[in-house]
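Changelog note: in this version the structure field was regenerated for every chain. One regenerated record is shown below for reference.
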Amino acid sequence: QVQLVESGGGLMQPGGSLRLSCATSGMSASFSNYIMRWFRQAPGRERELVASIITTADTTDYADDVKGRFIITRDRARKTSALQMTSLKVEDTGTYYCNAVHSTIPGLDLWGKGTLVTVSS
């Protein structure tokens, strides 16, 4: 069964750093064919796209408010994605979700259960 599991969330002061990790299972043969994305959802707000990394060239894209602070990566050997977050702001608080969208298989859109990030002084 294909699963995504996020980890690394927690409480951090403004200006601090956290590294989120997304572990995958059941997709060893096709991990490189997934677009990996990180979303977040603050209390009372809609889920928003934070960062994405494409299938082969590892080109990345970021939301405007995290550019220069967050970095998304993928490890093809370990079949994981990470979101390195630095210079954290209170506005970064929310539940962060890992998402994998297959580049060619219709409807293959996988989600983790989320990990909570709280930025507070």
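Spot check on this record: The mean pLDDT is 93. The chain is about 0% helix and 50% strand.
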